[in-house]
Amino acid sequence: MKFVFVAVVSLLLLHLGNAAGVAPPQGVLLMLSDDIGSDSFQIYGSDRKPKVTANLDDMASKGFVGDHFYVNPLCAPSRGSIVSSRYPFRTGIKTNRNNDIETSDCLLAKGFKEKGYKTLQIGKWQISNGLFPERLVNRCGFDYYISLDWDNHRYKQRYHGAYVTNLADLTTETRLTFDFTNKTVLENKHNLIAKNGNVYNPKWMADLVVKFIQSMQPGEKFFIYDCMLLNHEPYHNPPQAYRGDTTFDSMLFYLDGIAGRFRTVLEDEGLSDKVMILFTSENGSPRGIDTPWKGRINNGAKGGLNDLGTRVPLFLYWPTVIPASVNSQNIADSTDILPTLFDAIGATIPNMIDGTSFWDQVISGSATSHSDRTYAVGQTDRGITLRDLEHRISNRQLFHMDDFFSPREIKLTGLNGLCSAHLLPYLNLFSELANRVVNKNGKSTQKVLLPMTSSRYYGCWGFACTASGTVVCVKQCDVRNCLECAAGDVNTCQTCSRWYDKAAGKCVVQASLPTTTTSPTTTVTTYLATTTTLTEPTTTSPPTPCNVEHCVQCLHKRPNRCKVCTSPYQPNKKGRKCLLP
Fold first, then answer.
1. What confidence category does residue 445 fall into, taking pLDDT thresholds of 50, 70 and 90?
2. Distance between CA 570 and CA 565 in Å, rounded?
3. What is the DSSP letter of 48?
4. Burial tier of 86 (Cβ tally within 10 Å: 0-12, 13-18, 19+)
5. Which of 49, 30, 32, 29 is nearest to 40 (CA)?
6. Are 368 and 331 in contact (CB under 8 A)?
7. 196-200: long-range contacts (C-beta < 8 A, 24 or more apart)?
8. DSSP secondary-structure letter at 334?
């Protein structure tokens, strides 16, 4: 009897492969749509006609919805962050052109292969050199790929354009009849499937996804990364009877039909309670796309660092396993997808990533359960944004998010205004950004910008305020809101920033902060009231912080050139060093 008990426990442990104690899904379908913001879906308050996203809204209502999910505001940077769980300043993928993701960054398929899943990438990949699609296997670990021939058919021909694949039997001639009966792959070479004006690629891709699912043997595990073409330009009416108010609506309706088809196929195959679907988008709707939302019109802002460029839908659907009708109020971003999926299947979550798993919240059914994530990041080659639920910094600008799609900008007249008690949340965001990009957690060449100064800060582990209210760059100290760490200990604070008290080597905000301060004054917009009086430093222009060791005053706006060194040091000829005489 004891033997039977142990055997049963062992069998259970074999299946309970993730931290939440839920048996891993047999299949995972990651649907990444293109150029669709969260405001296009009724579940997020869209005023589009109900039928346009009926299937997706229904699936979302029966699963887990991320109300505050953010990505990078361009296609390729988001795709790079999804497969790596790293921000663009680490992957180097900040634009849509000339990308070639490194082996060390391409992690998504590898976690699934670790747990025995067959892996398929299909559609718009965009983050490898298009001349070498074999890198989807050699660098990224996918078993199979059927990828848009990106270099040759990037824009106008994407909906009827060419594809490349490592499946030996999938060719131009067999593209419509191929059924995955034979999954033999080509080694270090690929087939080119020629463009065909009579083949509508979104339908063909959906057909292949369905056939891949149907080819699975009982119990065989699979992962599909469906990189969809819809709703990217050129805008058009797909081959369907329905015509929306705009071609964008018509395309969205077609995408919604694909999602509904996938759900039906899973039901027909007896897999609906064995396969998890994660649906999201790579960035917000493009400029020129007007979206009716909660009684007003939102103008698309793809490429922009605001919510219209970065806030996208996220939902996970897995009937009988994921609790229904959960709208998460926690913040998350594109780097969190990989660790969450790995958590779900029991795969090893890599070190040196930026993302955090929210799988425990998905399974718990709680809209506000604890999350390690307190802010989200978005980046392109034009800048970087970091935000929590109420505050956002974008390059050198500050915004309060009392209206997500029309935020209120915070105006400063000097950098040291960040040392006002009322603006500490923004200084904390700059500190979080600095701590992320400093080269302690993987490769980075990113510099941090602060408002009201042209300086670019490099090597700061955070920012803090002196007792007199001056912003300083903190190095070699990993305690938030700390001016100076204990000697030789980067995790224990010696002196805390203004408005913070020291407690057990950390810095905690004072229990009661002043609501106003007086003279000298500057009026700025804040998040507590329309106007608030802030104390500014006695100098109208704060000195530029220096990156030169032993330097007390840099040349104007040149942090790497010293003008005055601490005694007895003297600047060399070009001011790059402070030397002993």
1. confident
2. 5
3. S
4. buried
5. 49
6. no
7. 196/160, 196/172, 197/160, 198/160, 199/160, 199/175, 200/159, 200/160, 200/238, 200/239
8. G
Token reading at 419: 């040392």
| 187 vs 402, higher pLDDT | 187
SS3 content of the chain, % helix, strand, coil (to 5): 25, 25, 50
The encoded tokens of residue 369 equal: 């359960």
Distances (CA, A) of 8 to 115, 214, 234, 548: 21, 31, 56, 65
Q: What is the pLDDT of residues 150-206, one digit of tens each?
A: 765 555 578 999 999 999 999 999 999 999 999 999 999 999 999 998 999 999 999
Q: Rg of the Cα trace of the chain? A: 26
Counting runs of H as helices and runs of E as strands, what totals does the chain give? 12, 31
One-letter amino acid of 240: Q
- Cis peptide upstream of residue 425 (ω within 30 degrees of 0): no
| Phi (first) and psi of residue 201, to 5 degrees | -60, -40
Give strand pairing partners of 465. Answer: 471
- Strand 118-123 to strand 144-148: parallel, antiparallel, or no bridges (unpaired)? parallel
- What's the rounded Cα separation, in Å, for the pair 211 and 580? 74
366 has pLDDT over 90: no
Question: Helices (DSSP H) in 333-410: which residue ranges?
Answer: 337-345, 359-364
Q: How far apart are CA 33 and CA 380, in angstroms?
A: 19
pTM over 0.70: yes
Best CA proximity match to 225, nearest among 66, 111, 102, 72: 111
The Cα 202–Cα 32 span in angstroms is 13
Please classify residue 149 by burial: count the beta carbons closer than 10 Å to its beta carbon, then call 0-12 exposed, 13-18 middle and 19+ buried.
buried
- Residue 347, token pair as written in the block: 């795969």
Band (11; pLDDT cuts 50, 70, 90): very low
Show the tokens assigned to 155.
Answer: 């824009």
| Phi-psi sector, 96: left (phi>0), alpha (psi -120 to 50), beta | alpha
Nearest to 376 by CA among 359, 361, 390: 390
- Are 82 and 351 in contact, with CB atoms under 8 Å apart? no
pLDDT at 411: 92
The packing angle between helices 247-268 and 54-61, to 10°, is 50
State how far Cα 160 lies from the chain centre.
29
Tell me how far apart the alpha carbons of residues 568 and 581 are, in angstroms, rounded to a whole number. Answer: 7
Q: Coil, helix or strand for 265?
A: helix
